[in-house]
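User: Thanks for the earlier help. One more: Conjugal transfer protein TraX. Can you show the sequence and predicted structure together?

Assistant: Of course, both are below.
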Amino acid sequence: MLSQFQILNSYHLKILALTTMILDHVGAMFFPDFLPLRIIGRVAFILYAFMLVEGVNNTRNIKNYIQKIFIWALISEIPFDLAFYGKPFYFEHQNIFFTLLISILGLQFFQKSKSFFLSFIVGLVCLVVSYFFKFDYSWYGTSLIFAFYLFRKLNFFKFIFIETISTIATFNVLGVQFFAFLGFIPIFLYNGKQGKKIGKIYYSFYAIHLLIFALIKYVTNV
């Protein structure tokens, strides 16, 4: 019965993640007082977190996956700093790929470890690193990814659990973060299929669009 509503594949979710991310960044950089763009943008990270876990579960070589995330974290940092802070190096806030990187390292350990205690400690360390090094979305982003991984077999209940985390994080990240629940709608419609492959665009567009936005801000003196 539920399957008839699950009409979205991985390709659709990735396109939606890219689109909502762009709208969110347009709002953050050019129209900070126009909340609808930021509200729509809350969908982006929910989908990125979900698709990261999907990637970990389906990849044949997690080491290559980690290497890819690491490379894009390095490539994206200067565009991120230029776009948001107007300088090539800003160490008070790191781009989202570092959040994905520390999270996927934690997931790799979870896959291999048979010790709940060690997994708990490693997970906690990942949260502390995300917070201490000021990765984008901080501990909230990493805990969200962990939640998707740990509760992926609980179907409907995982959405309740993750939305609870999102609601709590409203007081720690962004006031509009409550609207992250909108991201659960396309996930609910996800059928688990891959669809078209857009891996290169999916990862590279983050750095590319930030460079473009940084250039626009520089030219227009926004």
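User: Great, one quick takeaway?

Assistant: The CA atoms of residues 146 and 165 lie 11 Å apart.
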